[in-house]
Amino acid sequence: MNPVKIGICGLGTVGRGSLEVLTRNSVEIAGRAGRDIVVSHVGARGGADIEGVTVSRDIFAVADDPQVDILVESIGGTGVAKELILRAIANGKHIVTANKALIAEHGNELFAAATNAGVTVAYEAAVAGGIPIVKAMREGLAANKIEWLAGIINGTGNFILTEMRDKGRDFDDVLAEAQARGYAEADPTFDVEGIDAAHKLVILASLAFGIPLQFDKVYTEGISKISTSDVDYADELGYSIKHLGVTRRTEQGIELRVHPTMISKSQLIANVNGVMNAVLVKGDAVGPTLYYGPGAGAEPTASSIVADIVDIARSLAVDPQHRVPFLGFHTQSLSDTPVLDIGSIETGYYLRMSAQDKPGVLSKVAQILSDRGISIEAIIQKEAAAGTDYVPLIILTSRSVENKLMAAITDIEALPAIGGAVTRIRVEALG
Amino acid sequence: MNPVKIGICGLGTVGRGSLEVLTRNSVEIAGRAGRDIVVSHVGARGGADIEGVTVSRDIFAVADDPQVDILVESIGGTGVAKELILRAIANGKHIVTANKALIAEHGNELFAAATNAGVTVAYEAAVAGGIPIVKAMREGLAANKIEWLAGIINGTGNFILTEMRDKGRDFDDVLAEAQARGYAEADPTFDVEGIDAAHKLVILASLAFGIPLQFDKVYTEGISKISTSDVDYADELGYSIKHLGVTRRTEQGIELRVHPTMISKSQLIANVNGVMNAVLVKGDAVGPTLYYGPGAGAEPTASSIVADIVDIARSLAVDPQHRVPFLGFHTQSLSDTPVLDIGSIETGYYLRMSAQDKPGVLSKVAQILSDRGISIEAIIQKEAAAGTDYVPLIILTSRSVENKLMAAITDIEALPAIGGAVTRIRVEALG
User: Fold this and answer.
1) Superfamily classification of domain A345-427
2) Residue of B nearest to A268 (CA)
């Protein structure tokens, strides 16, 4: 069979990694794909000199090259990247991308264009780097009604939380190191405020529940307000704090949320440390399954990009309706199940507050919670340090509706005996 | 499109689970597959009454039914099951099976027959139950040279070792409970002597390295000789004992072995407890990835069987050469890399012996090891209990070739100051 010809647009970390893996492992890849896979055209604004490969400074030249079968988009962003992909689709090329923002925000439109053109848009690398989680969700778990999933899907955030726990370091301190090491972006907002994780979670939720991509509906809360004292109290209570993306199907609709989460240390996913990613998926037939690996980096990302290329190469001759559907479900089977507002979700809660060290304060707090049907599952009360009137009071609540809990917090903060704001971290059993 | 018609042979745990999942989740499954999937014919020796389904007491009637597109073999064993599958293949049917013994021992022959007939034999359920590990290996990691793989792939064995560690219980005691709970077979040899794990490892090794299935080459050692004292010493040294299947590509060939293994407690896979399974795979591009989930049970196994059915349904119209190859690599790309003898593999070792409580014994043992280039990485020496002359002496060695280590053990056992046999457990870094 003729070789499959690949065009790569963008020679940053991901583009270079893909070129390297396709070259180094060409024998194994051809043995698996049943035909040779060669990079024939690279688009790189700064130019490049690669033996046997046409290089264009205009990336659109790759999208217009009639020799190219599959275009790898590795320029990032949602502007030019989208224009490039739409052009390549119109030219009948299959697309492989690691661009989570683009898929989460414009995937519905790209998939529709690809359907019209009879080509595919593959994006395994867009979620959890090298972990083949898109394939697991779309194919491996196809027998299941997915009940929920929870993922550590931003490596920088997990690195920061791991260092805070293991070494008692401050958030700002670890963030500076992550930036120096190149884990975090120079503008770390995408990582630590949960936007990157939200992009990935939106994709995972669509795969889980067969709903269209709805990035505007995801609730996002970052880790920048987590203090080392919360990390320590969590540990004392038998929990780790992880920055999780969580999506769950309830009778009312679909929960879709990214936030710091306390989970029992006995959970396998609580032991996923450093920059590693993991996704825990609960299916009604299979039960819990977990997928773990590097969530970023040149070659882990390239591993997923090349897997997509091999998939496409294996099925180039297949008519489009026999391909795996973009979101796992065929378009006519997508559901309009609503995404729930954060106020109506239900979890346990960890509350930390500063309480005056005198009798009766705890009972007032307990009364406020009890009035809203929220019960207390555990309490830590610390001794007052010399010279202070306030002591930390930590409470773990039963599973409660968020709106009720937030109203209770408002009332607690209004108590004269409580100083300042109440810190609130959601608690998940993942059972 | 017409519905895809399924024949199920055998209505034990796996067959009933598959019927249940196909029925209960028919809407989701059809939404993913793009067409309805219906069970049209069941073969069960004892008969059955299932609405809308033809039931035959002769399972071969299912293999001969021209209506059946895909035959699910869930009778088990390697005799009649093989005959049944070959008949169905000859009749142009695709096969889905959870039968690890059959694939490991006769897969090469079945795949050849399927190739001739232009049909597929799918076996996701044969390895690690509900975990989509076959798909991950054949497709998700297709970009990688696989370096090694280590798996907890027998749930009964892992349950026994977990109970021994967490509750200090004896092997025999826990085994009796596992049998009572239905985890272990009445004849537990397949579980505790590692034969079941060996079947799965042989399949995983072929997927990892593109070698034919070679069940006759796997080294197998069970867990029945693990004592609670070894579990305790391992814990003291920072390790867990797990029953692992390990396969690794070295310059000399391929290691293929199932045995109790000490691994650091900080490894994620060391925290896989109870009846759960996990497979840790190291690819050259992706790095380490881990896949975790239930390794057995009616619905986890059905999850994988139905995933295979959906795969086949999605690609029924595809010509055979565009299907994913049986072992991930196309037949002409399979390699004849030799499988190594256990004597030439290299790991670290845990040694436990009974030594006379007098000066000079340790130095003699150390000398024997040193003479063979084996260095000592850690030692535990215990106080003698009142009234005994012997004390336990525990040694962790550097990575060494097994033949040299075994020769050293022979010499150590010949020392007058050493009582009885030396216990030896392999140690893996999995790094």
Assistant:
1) ACT domain (3.30.70.260)
2) B271
